[in-house]
Amino acid sequence: MLNKLLSLVQAGRPAIGSWIGFADPYSVELMSDLGFDWLLIDTEHFPIDRQNLRTILMATKGSDTTPVVRLSSNSVDHFQTALDLGAQGLVVPMVNSRADAVRAVEGCRYPPEGRRGFAPTRASRYFQKLEEYVEKAKSEIALIVQIETPQAVDSIEEILTVPGIDGIFIGPSDLASFMSLAARITHPDVTALIDKLVDRACAHSKPYGLPSWSPEECMSYVERGARLMTIGSDLSFMAGAGRKTLSGTRTLLKQRLAVSLDQNSERREHI
Question: If 0-12 CB within 10 Å is exposed, 13-18 middle and 19+ buried, where does residue 67 land?
């Protein structure tokens, strides 16, 4: 169960991923084969239940991408579901304090280090590789906590020093929302807090990342030391490609109609 995401970030190299919001196995399998280092499956804001999650994780099997699940909350039952189904990494939302970070680590670990229940059904290949899974689970599961509130920013020093945290993922949209600046992620007050988080993560040599929506934006953070980057999502790729194709078609249609009208006008003049 070699974790490509962890291998890259531990080697100091950026891991480029994307977001999964669709549960259809065709779209997941397609995204898995595009070459992303990791895929972030969002069970927090998309209607992905346990059955959907099982299907999604199965659809990533055989690809080189690392499936990472963003949990719906920092609750132990969500950890167990995602990990038992075979997730190789977790993103835990709304980690606002050291206690929240410790709770996340405990959710990932079996006793005595944690409180994860024991039944790694699919993760251990239906118990056929149980000992191998138990041996490698601790070192091959990526635990990333989300920093997305001013409270979390205030507690960042304590969060970064919790053993077992493999990185932080900054949530600009929620950060702006909790600052009463919803949808204004480029507001100077928001970017100032993001800059603070980037600075503190780098000072602690802790991998960090955040969502990006263009190659240029992604590279701007990679050049600042980011190693846990995502670019786009299945939803944005579909919407963007559809919008671009439709726009291009309408532009050509308008041009062709204009040519046709000109030609008809010339014919009438010759009659």
Answer: buried
